[in-house]
Amino acid sequence: MKFANVMSTAGEWLRGEGPHHQIVISSRVRLARNLRNRAFPGWGKKPARIEVLELIRPRVEELPEMQDSFSEVLQDLSALEKQVLVERHLISREHAAKGVGSAVVMNRRQTLSIMINEEDHLRMQSIRSGLQLKQAFKLVDKIDSALEGKLEFAYDNKLGYLTACPTNVGTGMRASAMLHLPGLVLSELINQVIQAVSKIGLAVRGLYGEGTEAMGNLFQISNQTTLGEKEEEIIARLSKVIETIIEKEHDARQVLIQKRSNTLWDQIGRAYGVLTYAHAMSSKEALNLLSIMKLGVDLGAFPEDRRLPIDELFIDTQPAHLQKSSQRKLNAEERDHLRAQIIRERLKVFPKPDISKLVRESGNGAATSPSNDE
Amino acid sequence: MLCDVCKCNDATVFLTQILEGKMQKVNLCDACSKEKGVQDPTGFALADLLLGIGAAEEIEKGATTQKCPVCGYTQADFKKTGRLGCSSCYQTFLEGLNTLLKAMHKGTEHVGKLPQHAHRNMELSDRMKSLAADLEKAVAESAASLRDQIKQLEHEMAAS
């Protein structure tokens, strides 16, 4: 498969059909594995890294799940192409910085991606739409079992799977879900939730993982510990916490509808207005406004069939996707213009926000609601 | 500079304490400082509080010359990067790592997935243990029976 094919088809997880997909954008599970007695990628010299790559890559490519896969060594990908993969969460930002001796192999549906010589020799990741951590784990677990028959993984009876960073030792597993939480942000409850979650040994991060800012009301929540607990237990614990957050988000939205409906309509109306008419827009502003549009779909202000175009814009307006689709490198100003243009075009066929449903649910009738002539 | 607890993120919180004339420094990232609830650290041995008893010493003598025999990694390298050199480093630096792992994780022993070969080895070692136990039991039983027979013969000889 060529990179052009990767570009032209959106990942399956983006289609948003999984359970709780209104709030849980995606679920990801990754396993870290290393070969025994070989220097980890961060310490190994170039020839050693290439040797490991040549041992692992054919074994990965011959997996039945990797038929018709996209497989490329990192030095053969342009900076832009790497960035596109980062924006789709198919490789990490760290991996994008790698060159000779590293590779990525992923399946056509973009639900399974394997990084070779990232921080560990192998990082296997499965992505699914909605809350499906268990299913995502099942797939990487299967891949891991298939590979361990052909490669000798570093494993210790007491410490489990040995990884470059001691924070991953044991299961080598990081399970995470990307949550869209505009209700909790608008009602200023998000910090409470983040604090509660970090107290029980889970991490909350921004859009692109470690050290990134939370934009578009998107938050990643993941397990922080990997030793002393079974994979299934970690996933069950994480899923339970996520289900509680989903409930809190629904509650927050209900309270907003009941008590601060004017604020809510104002936000949705403004997002619609700015996105429809702006001629320059940063990627941060776009994400934040698209988040409110998504909330608008969830609440019924826009028809359900408008969900996919909004979800697609989340990805298509990211800097590398913009440049890749325009086939040339753009400076920040040009990107902001192009971004606004693409959004305007896609929203041309978008109906105006219909808040009649919201008005009914808020129960305060037409008296306090703005006139709605739809 | 990396966080002393997770060794992954950049440290943003720097704590210094002078205790009995000795200075202790601990560097933490934002997440770890929050997790550990570091607000008023007065009156505690900082490093011990955060990383487990004995960690303060561990950090001080962090730059020892211990070297991994497989990949040549040193403890100083680990302190700098927060990553290990190869899988054998876990054996080489086990002592210092144990304190870290204790502070970092839920437990100190892996209870999750076993690779097939480890699984097979474990089954074989279980079987060997049970055979050895059987053998010991059999030896003990036959020894007891032989002793009984000898005693019986001794009695008979004394009686005759």
Overall body shape of chain B = elongated
Mean pLDDT across every amino acid position of chain A: 90
How many DSSP E strands of chain A?
10
* Gyration radius of chain B, rounded: 27 Å
Helix content of chain A: 40-55%
- Structure classification of chain B: mainly alpha
Distance between the termini of chain A: 47 Å
Which secondary-structure class do the elements of chain A indicate?
alpha+beta
Output the helix-strand order of chain B: EEHHHHHHH
Strand order of the largest sheet of chain B: 1-2
Percent helix among the residues of chain B?
40-55%
Number of helices of chain A: 15
How many β-strand stretches of chain B?
Answer: 2
Order of helices and strands of chain A: HEHEHHEEEHEEEHHEEHHHHHHHH
Instruction: Describe the sheet with the most strands of chain B.
Output: 2 strands, antiparallel
Key features?
heterodimer, A: about 375 residues, alpha+beta, eight-stranded antiparallel beta sheet, disordered C terminus, B: mainly alpha
Describe what you observe in this structure:
The complex is a heterodimer of chains A (374) and B (160). Chain A is α+β, with helices and mostly antiparallel strands and 374 residues long. Chain A is 47% helix and 14% strand. In chain A, the strands form 2 sheets. An 8-stranded antiparallel beta sheet of chain A has the order 2-3-4-5-1-8-10-9, with helices on one face. Chain A has helices spanning 3-8, 46-61, 79-87, 93-96, 133-148, 182-186, 190-199, 231-259, 261-277, 283-299, 307-316, 319-326, 332-347, 356-362, 365-368, and strands at residues 24-33, 70-73, 103-106, 112-116, 122-129, 155-156, 160-161, 173-180, 202-205, 218-223. In chain B, strands 1-2 form a two-stranded antiparallel sheet. In chain B, strand 1 and strand 2 (22-28) form a beta hairpin. Chain B starts with 12 loop residues before the first strand and ends with a helix. The interface between A and B is large, with 48 and 40 residues.
